[in-house]
Design brief:
Strand content: under 5%
Structural class: mainly alpha
Number of strands: 0
Order of helices and strands: HHHH
Largest sheet: none
Number of helices: 4
Length: about 120
């Protein structure tokens, strides 16, 4: 008698679990299809048939908002990183060719003066 009851309860459990998960699958599929239908409706009505989406675009907020730092150490790190970035940008901004030409001409002028002073002493 106990085997029949256990078998019956096992069958009820299995059937109810399959029914529950099937209903959940239907529900998820319904939500997925509904969401895509709404998106398609929005695309057709707002982008294809009219230009209301382009007329109703919000302007971006260009104002700087106040940031609160986590700690004093983080503020110091940010200042240090900003200075490093400024230094690297300054180094990248140097025209190395022009600097080399200028140093070469100055070195030539200096060596010419030294050579003239040595030749004039003899």
């Amino acid at each position: 008698m106990g085997g029949r009851i256990h078998g019956f309860l096992g069958g009820v459990l299995l059937t109810s679990a399959l029914t529950y998960y099937t209903a959940q699958t239907f529900h998820h599929n319904q939500q997925f299809i509904s969401q895509h239908l709404q998106q398609s409706n929005n695309i057709i009505n707002n982008r294809i048939l009219t230009d209301s989406e382009y007329r109703n675009t919000a302007l971006p907020n260009n104002h700087i908002t106040l940031k609160q730092r986590v700690s004093f150490g983080e503020t110091c790190k940010d200042i240090w990183n900003d200075e490093i970035i400024k230094m690297v940008n300054w180094i990248y901004g140097i025209n190395w060719y022009k600097l080399g030409v200028k140093l070469d001409s100055e070195a030539n002028k200096l060596t010419d003066k030294i050579a003239e002073s040595l030749v004039n002493k003899k």
